[in-house]
Amino acid sequence: MKTNLKIITSISVVVLFVGTVLLPILNVPSQANIVQEPSKTETERQYWALLVGIGKYADNPEQNRPDMILEVNDFQNLLLQSSWWSADHIKMLTAEDATVSNILAGFRWLSRVASADDVVVVYLSTHGMYHSFDIPPKDETDGLDEFLISYWGFAYNLSFINDDTINVLLNKIKSDNVCLIVDSCYAGGFNDHWKLLKSAPEQPRVILMGSCEDEEAVSGGFAPYLIDGLRGYADTNEDGIITAEEAFNYTQPRSSPWQTPTIYDGYPGELPLTTNTLHHVASSIPVSSSPMETLIPLPNPSEVSAETAVLCGHVSGTGGPIQNALVTATGRIDYQQTYTNTTTTDPAGFYFLHVPAMRIRISVSAPGYCDMSTNQFQVQENTTYWRNFTLVPRPPETAIVCGFISSEQNGTPLAANVSLRWWGSSEQTYQNETIADANGFYQMNVAPGQVDLDVSMDGYFTESFYEVNITEAETFWVNISLYPFPLETSTVCGYVTDNETGEPIIGFHIDVLWVNFSNGHEYSRRAQTNTSGFFSMPIAPGELYIDIRTEDYSSYDPYRHDAVDGKPLWLNLSLEPDRISVDIAKPLRALYLNNQRIAPWSSTRIIGPIDIEATSADFFYGPGGYWQVQKVEFYIDDEIKATVTTEPYSWNWTAKTIGKHIIKVVAYGFDNDTASKEIEVTKFL
User: How many helices (H) and strands (E) does the chain have?
Assistant: First the structure.
C-alpha cells in the first residue's frame, strides 16, 4: 500500500513539475489575477513583488493560521511606505485566492513584467512539508524535496508547489535582482538554485528562509522580525537603505529562540529591498499634551471562585508516613495569572487543602526523597479529592556542584540564590537550594545524573544551565556572572479604549517585554488600566514588545517598539471587542454535482441540491454548545430560508433554478452581536 502510494505520488509530482517547466499552464480567471501592468522605460529600475500568505485552508480549518494573512498584509504595507514601491507592482494572494494555479500565474506575471535591472521579491508563507524522495535533478543532500501547501492542499494531494518548481519559475524571471522569502516549516530546503541548462548564467538571487531544512516553524516566529528589519531597524550602516542581507542579520537572532532562519546568498554585493521608513512612520508617537499620571502598581491577582473544594491524602515513604512534607497545589486563573496554595503534612503524613474549582496540579517534596506530582485534573466545587503519594528515597549524593557567583558589571561577589534540579527518571527528580556566601561561593551535594541549575538575585537577570551531566564522585565547578538589570529611565504609558464605544477599558492588563538580543536577556513589566483606561509602567530604554492577551478583545501587535532614555513611550490602544465569526464551509469555489464536490473551480458552480454548511472560528467555545451562537440563518438572495439553532449548522438547498444567486449565512451571538458571510454561486437545477 505504501509502495503503490509512493509510486503514484512520484508520478504525479513529476507530471506537475514537467508541466510547470515545459507546458503553458492554464490561467484560471479570478479577480486575484487582474493586475495592471504599467508602462516603464528600459532604463528605470522598478520593484515587483508576488506576496502569498495563505493562512486559510479548504476542508481543514484546524490548519488555519490567520496570522499569515495579517503578516502578508503588513509586508505589503511596509513596501508601500517606501517610495520605491507602488501598489500596481505588487500582487498579493491570500486564503481562497492562493490556489496553485493563481500562484503559478503570479510567477508568470513576474516573468512578463520584470526586466533585468528590476528588483523582484517573492514572499511565500504557508505550511511546509517534505516528500519521502528527491525529485530529479537529485539536488537534496538529505534526499528529500520540500513543498508548500496551497489553499486546496489539505483537500487534494497535488495542491502544492515543491522547491524544484519554485526554482524553475524563478529562473524564468529576467531580473538580475531576485529575493525569495519562505516562511514555513522546513523552509531551509527552498535554497535551490540549479539551472536546467548548465551553460546558462546563475540568477543573482538571495533566499531568506524562516527555518532549517529539517525544522518546524512557529506562527509569528520569523515574519514580524523580518518586517521590523525592513522597516528600518536592520539599517546598521545608516545609509537609509535596507538590503536583504541586512534584514536577515537583524531577523536571525530574534527568531532563534523558536526556530533557526537560514540564508542562501548568490547575489554580488547586497540586494537593496526597501528604504528606511522609521522616521516617516512611527509605531508610537509621544504625545506631550497627555497628562503623566501616577504610576499604577502591579495588579493584584484576579478574583477566583471560593475555595470550596478539598484536596487531601497521605504522603509516605519507605519508612512510613512523612511529616512536614511540602504539598503545593497550582492552577491557572487566566492567561496571565496563576493560583498557588501550600500546606505541610502532619505526623501521620496527612495533608488537607482548600482550593477553588479549576484545573489543579499537586506537587509533593520532602527532604531525602524525590519529588512527586500529579498531572493536571479538573476540580469541581464542593468536592473532595483524595490523592495519596509514596515518595522514592533520593539516590546517594556522591557528587558536588560548586562555584563562585559575581557581578558581570564589576566582578563583585554576589550572595545569590542557587537552585538545582536533579533528573533521574520521570519519577525520580528532586530540587536542592542554597545561597552563596559573602565571597560568592556556593556548594551542593548531588547524585550522579543530569542537573539543571538556576542562579538568581534581586536586581539581576537569572542565569540558567540545562542538562549538565554529573558523574560519580565528581566535583563539578560552575562559575557564574550575573548581569544587573538596566536602569528604568523610561516609561510606557497610554490609554486603552473600546474602538466601538470609545469608552475606557478598566482593569485591563498590559505586559511589556524588554529584550536585549546582544546578551540574551529579557524581563517583563505589567500594568493595569485605571478608571480612565490609563496605564503606566517604568521600563528600561531599549527594544520592547507588547503582549496583550484577553478573551474579550482582539489585539495583534507582534512588532517592535522602542523606549528612549528620559522620554515616555505612548501606546494609546483602541481595541476591537471580540465578536463571533462565521464562514461558509460548503460550498467553496468548486464544481458540485448532487451535493458532491467534483473539482476546484474559479467560482462556485452547483448542479442539483446541495448542503449549505456554516462554520466559525468560535468552534469549541460558548456556553452549552460548540459555538458562541444562538442561531444561524440561511438566506438565498436576501430571502431567509432556514434558521438553525443547534450544531451542525447546515441547510439543504433543493430548489431547482438556473442562474446566479447569493448565499448568505448570519450567526447571532449570546451578546446580541452578529456576523455574516456571503458568496455568489451559479446553480443549475
Answer: 6, 48
d(C-alpha 393, C-alpha 430), whole Å: 10
The DSSP element (H or E) to which 609 belongs, if any, is: none
Q: How far apart are CA 5 and CA 13, in angstroms?
A: 12
Q: Note whether 346 and 329 are within 8 A (CB).
A: no
Helix segments in 152-301, DSSP class H: 163-171, 223-228, 244-255
Query: DSSP letter string over 647-680?
Result: SS-EEEE----EEEEEEEEEEEETTS-EEEEEEE
Give the domains, in start order, of the chain with CATH numbers: 2-29+46-275 (3.40.50.1460), 309-390 (2.60.40.1120), 399-480 (2.60.40.1120), 490-577 (2.60.40.1120), 583-684 (2.60.40.10)
Q: Are 21 and 170 in contact (CB under 8 A)?
A: no
Q: How far apart are CA 360 and CA 422, in angstroms?
A: 24
User: Which three three-digit cell numbers place residue 210?
Assistant: 524562516
DSSP string, 202-214: PP-EEEEESS-TT
Helix (H) or strand (E) holding 460: none
pLDDT reported for residue 136 = 79
Closest residue by Cα to residue 266 from 206, 201, 197: 206
- At 7, list the grid cell: 509510486
Q: Is the peptide bond before 224 cis (omega within 30 degrees of 0)?
A: no
Cell of 501: 464605544
Q: Is pLDDT at 376 greater than 50 in this prediction? A: yes
State the Cα–Cα distance between residues 125 and 67, nearest whole angstrom. 10
**Closest by CA position to 388, among listed 350, 429, 435:** 350
pLDDT grade for 335, boundaries at 50, 70 and 90: low
Bridge partner residues of 506 (DSSP): none
**Rounded distance between C-alpha atoms, residue 397 and residue 451, angstroms:** 12
Contacts of 516 (CB under 8 A, 6+ apart): 486, 522, 542, 543
pLDDT class of 18 with cuts at 50, 70, 90: very low
Containing 681, the helix (H) or strand (E) segment is strand 674-684
| Residue ranges of E strands in 620-657 | 629-636, 639-644, 650-653
**Facing residues of 406 across strands?**
413, 481
| Identity of residue 108 | R
- Tell me which H or E stretch contains 275: strand 272-275
Q: Which amino acid is at 11?
A: I
For 301-316, the pLDDT digits (tens) are: 445 568 999 999 999 9
